[in-house]
Design goal:
Blueprint: E1 2-6, E2 17-22, E3 25-31, H1 35-41, H2 55-60, H3 72-77, E4 89-91, H4 97-100, E5 112-114, H5 116-128, E6 138-140, E7 145-147, E8 154-156, E9 163-165, E10 168-170, E11 177-179, E12 182-188, E13 197-203, E14 206-210, H6 221-233, E15 238-242, H7 254-267, E16 272-275, H8 281-294, E17 297-301, H9 302-312, E18 326-329, H10 345-349, H11 354-360, E19 365-366, H12 368-373, E20 378-381, H13 390-393, E21 400-403, H14 411-426, E22 430-434, H15 443-453, E23 457-461, H16 466-472, E24 484-486
Parallel strand pairs: 3-4, 4-5, 5-10, 14-15, 15-23, 16-20, 16-21, 17-18, 17-20, 18-19, 21-22
Antiparallel strand pairs: 1-2, 1-24, 2-3, 6-9, 7-8, 11-12, 12-13, 13-14
This protein binds zinc ion.
Length: about 475
């Protein structure tokens, strides 16, 4: 017997957590965070408490109550009984938080399957990220202590001493692998983060296609096409498809973004200030191409430098940190010594985390002084958290701001957007000018894909527009949260 149980992503965009069971083998497809549920109870300064282990997450419904999947250090600290391992693997579709953020909470002995790009992003998040809930590839055991060597008391085990690797299984696109009796083939798909993966799962009771998030209008569109072709060759019994934009027509493509940004940057007399999702490498490539064609220098942040270095280890065509059109911005941190000649370099370096220091002495590092004196030369990547750097850069009249992210979809994002506008007004920056392409396929594209694949049953998830599927198809299965579907 096989079954699917949806613990997230039902009538909501994101939060995918799908348990697939086949003859005693249990595999989780994604283990992400529901943004809507998280926003219902938590905000920037009201967060689930780590010291409460799983209880805060489970109480509000962010994590499902399933035995045998959660980390043993948390169970022990909370005084919950020990559990036998109850999950054989987790397959991750891509490195967006709504698909992967809760890996943190999983047991160390559950193997994590993901594409090399996804793992590169996880490594980057672990090294450069700030929040407390990481542990994607490396597991940091919490709440352990030991007696001091001299017998004078106890000490908490923290830092490297608490770290050990998880069981990580990088997947090769198009190459079948096996978990017990279940055969799985991963396929690359185009999305707004590199290495996004769809999985075709051959189970005893039929073949399942889990699409993850996908689109056809980025630079990897042929990957999505190939995945659809592969799915057509198998008889797909069940398609679990995303439907984020099922209610929308086709929109901008990544190439449209490139053309519009090019024109825009050419028209800008002074500084071009830009914002785009930090790990959207397709968008990064778009701005990079614009920089090459307009003779500008694209200034990224240090976290992006780290990610590009991780991706370049994969030997594919990702831009490298040595690229002549790429520069990296050292923001003011701690004592704010960057850009000051009256302090020795050792002290300046001490303002930064260890991983950042190797970049600071390279020739392509810029600080606010460099940008301030030569504003027409640069396209300055300025996310929400870098806005205060504009105080030092002092954008001159004629500078413009390009907003290359999705429109705000909740109150908190709207409030942030108001703040961005206040900053732009403060400096007389022209903008925001919205130039963006979505990470998701449109309704017509999703339906066309389904029509090609001809699955026996359709399970739409990651959507608030299930009615659009209802209008098109009679062979729908309506998933219900935590209710097992026998297949
Ligand atoms: Zn996504």
């Amino acid at each position: 017997m096989s079954s699917l149980t949806f613990f997230g992503g039902v009538n909501e965009i994101g939060g995918n957590k799908i348990l697939f069971e086949d003859k005693g083998t249990k595999i989780m497809l994604d283990f992400g965070m529901s943004f809507s549920l998280s926003g219902k109870y938590f905000s920037e300064f009201l967060q689930p408490r780590k010291c409460n282990c799983l209880e805060d997450f489970i109480t509000v419904g962010l994590l499902p109550k399933i035995k045998g999947i959660y980390r043993e250090d948390y169970l022990k600290h909370a005084g919950w009984p020990k559990e036998e391992k109850g999950l054989d693997a987790v397959l991750i579709s891509h490195a967006h938080a709504d698909h992967s953020a809760f890996i943190h909470h999983l047991r160390k002995d559950i193997p994590i399957y993901a594409s090399p790009e996804t793992l590169a992003i996880f490594n980057t998040l672990e090294t450069t990220g700030s929040g407390g809930f990481k542990d994607f590839c490396n597991f940091t055991c919490s709440f352990e202590y030991k007696s001091k060597k001299d017998g004078s008391g106890y000490t908490k085990i923290i830092g490297d001493a608490a770290k050990s690797p998880r069981i990580i299984k990088p997947v090769d696109f198009n190459k079948k692998f096996r978990i017990d009796s279940v055969e799985i083939t991963p396929y690359e798909v185009d999305h707004s983060v590199p290495g996004s993966t769809a999985y075709i799962i051959h189970a005893s009771q039929g073949t399942i296609l889990y699409t993850g998030d996908y689109r056809f209008h980025g630079y990897r569109s042929e990957a999505t096409e190939k995945m659809i072709d592969a799915a057509c060759e198998y008889e797909i019994d069940y398609i679990i498809t995303e439907g984020t934009r099922a209610n929308e027509e086709k929109g901008n493509t990544e190439s449209d973004v490139f053309s519009r940004v090019s024109e825009f940057v050419e028209d800008t007399k002074k500084l071009s200030v830009i914002n785009f999702p930090s790990r959207d490498i397709a968008r990064l490539k778009t701005f990079h191409k614009v920089a090459q064609e307009t003779g500008k220098k694209l200034v990224l942040d240090l976290k992006q430098a780290y990610l590009l270095d991780q991706l370049s280890l994969l030997g594919k065509d990702y831009p490298t940190t040595d690229d002549p059109n790429l520069y990296f911005f050292a923001e003011k941190k701690n004592w704010g010594l960057i850009g000051r000649d009256d302090y020795p370099i050792e002290l300046i370096l001490q303002d930064y985390d260890k991983w950042e220091r190797k970049y600071l002495q390279k020739g392509n590092i810029l600080n606010f002084r460099d940008i301030k004196i030569s504003q027409n030369d640069y396209m300055f990547y300025c996310n929400y958290f870098l806005l205060n750097e504009l105080i030092d850069i002092k954008p001159e009249k004629g500078s413009k701001y390009i907003r290359s992210v999705c429109e705000p979809f909740d109150e908190e994002m709207e409030l942030d957007e108001k703040r961005v506008k206040n900053w732009l007004n403060l400096f007389g920056l022209d903008g925001p000018h919205q130039i963006h392409a979505s990470g998701h396929a449109s309704g017509p594209e999703i339906f066309e894909s389904i029509d090609k694949i001809k699955p026996k049953k359709i399970i739409p998830i990651h959507t608030e527009s299930i009615q659009c599927f209802e209008k098109q198809y009679s062979n729908l299965i309506h998933a219900e949260t935590a209710k097992k579907i026998i297949i």
